[in-house]
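Input (Integron integrase):
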Amino acid sequence: MVAAPRLLDQVRACCRVRHLSLRTEQAYVGWIRRFILANGKRHPRDMDGHDVSAFLTVLATRHRVAAGTQNQALAALLFLYRDVLGVELPWMDAVIRAKRPRRVPVVLSVDEVQRLLLAMEGRTALLAGLLYGTGMRLMEALRLRVKDVDFAQRQIVVREGKGGKDRHVPLPERLAPSLRDEIARAGHVHAGDLEAGHGAVWLPYALARKYPGAARERGWQYVFPAQRLSRDPRDGMIRRHHLDESVLQRAVRSARLRAGILKPASCHTLRHSFATHLLEAGQDIRTIQALLGHKDLSTTQIYTHVLNRGGLGVRSPLDRLPAA
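Output:
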């Protein structure tokens, strides 16, 4: 008799059937494990909404997690009960979701962006330039494949962005030479991997089975490959992944400090700055929405609140007083 798979293995299997990202899978497994341990290793079938509420309350009061983190934990537990265990949730409405504060994003001025980029060099400078020049998210840039860079049309195809949608973004002309060099470098790395008996990159969904040779084709390789081969946690295969996000995050932080920028700028700040500077230049908001890949226009409209208009165009009454 074959033993039933363990609960966390069932969670992983359900995540993969639904094509959830590896990051979402890891987050859900982590929260579900933490929930079980916090309740004395009781099986979730033996718990209910009161246990879920108590767990979320401890996260908020004792651990002081952010609202987004608390809601992610709730999403993981709802996924467990609904999709993995197939349990009805009559208590779902009683579980209160944390209200996320709506904050105005940090945006750099054009001068600050220039200072930041000048303080960087090499691959990380190219990546930071792509984030600002295209509005791509950090992981979208790192997961960029060679075939999706179109120099002739001067555009980049962003595959499987947030929400699973593809979109086109402009390829900045000033980055084209560096991007060509980076793609050539990735080609040399790939050739070496092939000689060593590797060179098969991870492909999404069932593409590897449908097109057995595609994983070794140059066009499917990452533009920014990692320095070393590693074991893929999804299937245990030895592959070359893309550059880890921490490399660029550390480089941006170091450059910010060297450039003397006091704002708490991050990689995502470059995306915010891309959108805001386009608005300042008179670009229509619908176009910016499409470039950013926002499903809802209201998400894009937050950038109208950070335009450099001196307090939304209002002149302070203090400045109307006669000089002392």
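The CA atoms of residues 202 and 235 lie 10 Å apart.
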